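Tutorial handout. Part one gives the primary structure; part two gives the three-dimensional structure as tokens.
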Amino acid sequence: MEEAAGAELVTAPLQDAPAPLPGRQLAEALHQEQYPALIRFLLLNGASWTAAQDAAQDAFTQMCAPGLSIAHPKAWLRKVAWRSWVKQKIAPEELCSEPPEPHELTMRWQTPAHAAELDEESRTVINLLRALPAKQRAAMAWTLDGFTTEESARAMGTTPAAVRQNLTRARTALKTGLNLDSGAERTAKEGGR
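Part two.
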């Protein structure tokens, strides 16, 4: 199934796609840069620290498969790692169901260094992201990793309109959770009192 994920991304390239490179060569070149970003992506999707590490490593391992060529390695890594994480959480007969919801809504950092990297506001934002419904969380995670709406939709197997709708809902929920009202909304509320 993971090989099919790579094939999907290679057979449906984005505009001006680079030539596919051998997976093992990509894995070696991208590991140092993309491994932490991949873990962050999975954490934002609701994975635990250890599950994110396992899924990220599994994606890099699958990237090294003989004969595999990948045109869009960053998107491929995220899609394969996400699928690996979902397989960890969902029984084989439930693979077509919705992504799993996180068991806890608070981040548990493995070392003091991990916790020190984030200030209180960052922790609050991450906890709010983890509380979002799975599709909103996924759309936001792809966007935060720098992917366009079209790239996110292709990787998530949905339409750009659905991604935009989930992003809008996620942003609204985050604004509400952070008590961030726009100036117009604040003025309207104060004027109505």
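Part three, for discussion. Residues 132 and 170 are 7 Å apart (CA to CA). The two ends are 58 Å apart (CA to CA).
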